[in-house]
């Protein structure tokens, strides 16, 4: 259904979309008798912003959890760089360069913004506990490099003014931005965002949109997101997968998806001839 060329190409606004980075092939996921995902296939291409949309209970979060390695599907395969990914623990998937944010913010409320973001560097830490405890050279160099990266992200997401503030004291929109910062601290190749705009006011949504686009543009990070705000999805995404009752009912550019009768009937709810 998609109008994307097969090879790498540059979009009209100057962004580069590469080849297939991740492929979901015939994924089926069951919870006992409930089939959350039924035989779904789609791919995510390097550098694109890919949205997954659909009504409540359609299976979007389940799909994000398959991508992040939190759920291993009973059927189908996940390919990363063309290679089949064996069942993995989420930390192993994180080491492959996949980071995520959550629908309900998952930060340490009592810790400062800076320390929360530092936890995102864990997958990059190589020194052992003993070296860190006695602050040997290698541990010191690593700490300095990690701090430098974290400070760069703080600067990029414009949160310098709250770097020492405990996260629990922040308003909702800023907490979401700190969660994004922590995910970015892992320097992911694929960033998974679970409803990044949920519960935000218009201004906070505009800010978040801008930061998502900037992350994609500046770091070249591939992004897959679930979002209910259709205006945001259609503005942000290069391609959209539409799910309904665990099945894929649409897959293409925002314009293609918007024009699909099946998608309109099941989800968008706009009248057609
Ligand atoms: N851990 C689980 N155990 C049992 N059933 C589950 C579990 N997670 C999801 N389901 C079921 O799988 C189906 C898909 O749920 P999922 O949360 O993936 O949908 P969703 O599209 O993300 O919905 P929402 O937009 O409301 O978050 C639903 O019927 C749900 O009840």
From TrEMBL:
**Domain ABC transporter as annotated: residue spans:** 22-270
Name of the protein described by the UniProt record: ABC transporter ATP-binding protein
Answer yes or no on keyword Nucleotide-binding: yes
Q: Which domain of life is it from?
A: Bacteria
The UniProt entry, under PROSITE patterns, shows: ABC_TRANSPORTER_2
Under the heading Pfam families, the entry gives: ABC_tran (PF00005), BCA_ABC_TP_C (PF12399)
Question: Which GO MF terms are attached to this record?
Answer: ATP binding
Alphabetized, the UniProt keywords read: ATP-binding, Nucleotide-binding, Transport
Print the organism lineage: Bacteria, Pseudomonadati, Pseudomonadota, Alphaproteobacteria, Rhodobacterales
UniProt signal peptide: none
SMART domains listed in its UniProt record = AAA
Q: Coiled-coil annotation: which residues?
A: none
